[in-house]
Amino acid sequence: MNSETAPPDRVPRPTSPTGHFAMRFSSTPRGARLARRLAGQRLDAWGIPYDCDTHHALTLMVAELAANAVRHGRVPGRDFHLSLACDTTTVRIEVTDTRTEGVPVVATSADLRGTGRGLLLVEHLADRWDWHPRPDGPGKTVWAEYVLPAGGRPVAEPSRPSFTADPRTTYRTATAGRQIDAAVTLDP
Fold it and tell me: Which CATH superfamily is domain 15-150 in?
C-alpha cells in the first residue's frame, strides 16, 4: 500500500524500537545476498524465527529492496545501506542507495516479462511502503513496514511447501494472511 510521498521528517517510524540493525553493503549481488542473510539472522535473534511466515515475508522484502538498490541504484564505488527497526508491533526495513535518478515504480502486469516483480512483491507483503530522497546527500531511501501478527512476535509455524510430486508445479505460500501465487520451474 503505497502512501503519498512524504518528506523524510514526516515518514512514519516505529516508536521505541526494541531492536535496531544497520549496515552498509557493497552494491553487488553478493552484497544483496549478505544483506538478506544478516537480516534473517537479526530477525531470528529478535524472536521472529526462521521457520515462520513472518520471517519469510520480511526476508523476501529485504532481498527485493536490496536487489533493487544493486540493480537500479548502483553508483560505482558507493555502497547501499540497510536498516531494520523492530518494536513490539512493527518491523521497518529501509534500504538507501546513492543514485538520484530513477523513482521506484511498481511494474504493471504488462511489464512483467522476467524481471521487475520486486516492488510488486513488496507492495503485496508490506502494510505500508514508500520512498523519499536521501536527506544527507544524493540518493533515495525505500522503506517498508510490516505489522506483526496480533500478539506481537510470532511463534514458529512450518510454512515451507512440500514437493512430494513433480517440483514443476505451482504452489501457494501463505505469508501472514496474505497470498502469493508463484510458479516454480526447476531445470533438470
Answer: Histidine kinase-like ATPase, C-terminal domain (3.30.565.10)
